[in-house]
Design brief:
The chain is an alpha+beta fold and 210 residues long. The chain folds into three domains: 7-44; 53-148, Homing Intron 3 (I-Ppo) Encoded Endonuclease, Chain A, CATH 3.90.75; 150-204, no CATH class. Helices cover 28% and strands 13% of the residues. It has helices at residues 33-42, 53-58, 91-97, 133-138, 143-148, 176-199; strands at 61-62, 69-70, 81-84, 87-90, 107-111, 128-132, 164-166, 173-175. The protein starts with 32 loop residues before the first helix and ends in an 11-residue tail after the last helix.
């Protein structure tokens, strides 16, 4: 497309004039919007400045309190988010990464309450610890964690190794003393009917077996 008579603008190209760029040109020196912005900021449309991640991270941190609160974006669960290497990451994992601590696969980061951490968006390294998902869950306030911290059953029996059993899937602890008491009550309910059957000369019930 030719420029209008007397116009000082460059012709509007179909695509950006930078090599290997397929985005449409916007008429500003023949660049697309991205390369035009780079030219305005850095004087070179191909410039890709490397930002100081630590400096960019720091500008979103409020260190005025005991917890260093994240002031950037948050997810719906209250955890801070930070853009790193082209994708959003949890802000507290980046805080550890900046001091040389990586989170291995299968592990997660716990905001340790015992160290004074009270906020999910805290990025203070001293308040963070890499733990397993199970350990992180048992440190929380969910029903499984609350029950795991109990030392006695609801009837006051202590959860000692001798007095504790578990289901095959290990989803629940069972108090052996309470289980024995339930068995005795169940037997007590069955005995009168068995005695009545014996008095009348009826054969004992064998579960329907021939």
């Amino acid at each position: 497309m030719a420029p209008r008579p007397g116009s000082t603008l460059h012709p509007r190209p179909d695509v950006c004039s930078v090599d290997d760029c397929e985005r449409p040109g916007n008429g500003s020196r023949g660049y697309c919007r991205t390369h035009y912005t780079r030219w305005r900021r850095h004087g070179d449309p191909s410039a890709r400045p490397r930002y100081d991640v630590a400096a960019r991270f720091e500008q979103f941190v409020d260190r005025s309190g005991e917890c260093h609160r994240w002031m950037g974006t948050h997810d719906r669960n209250g955890y801070g988010h930070f853009s790193y290497e082209g994708r959003l990451r949890k802000a507290h994992t980046i805080a550890l990464l900046l001091v040389g601590v990586t989170v291995p696969p299968g592990m997660t980061v716990d905001h340790v309450r015992a160290r004074g951490c009270r906020h999910r968006d805290c990025v203070r390294v001293e308040h963070l610890e890499v733990v397993t998902h199970r350990e992180n869950s048992l440190r929380g306030d969910n029903p499984a964690a609350i029950n795991a911290r109990k030392t006695h059953c609801k009837r006051g029996h202590e959860f000692t190794p001798e007095n504790t059993a578990s289901r095959p899937d290990r989803s629940e602890r069972i108090c052996r003393a309470c289980a024995r008491e339930r068995g005795r009550r169940h037997d007590a309910k069955r005995r009168p009917s068995q005695w009545l059957m014996a008095d009348r000369g009826w054969p004992p019930y064998n579960g329907g077996k021939a």
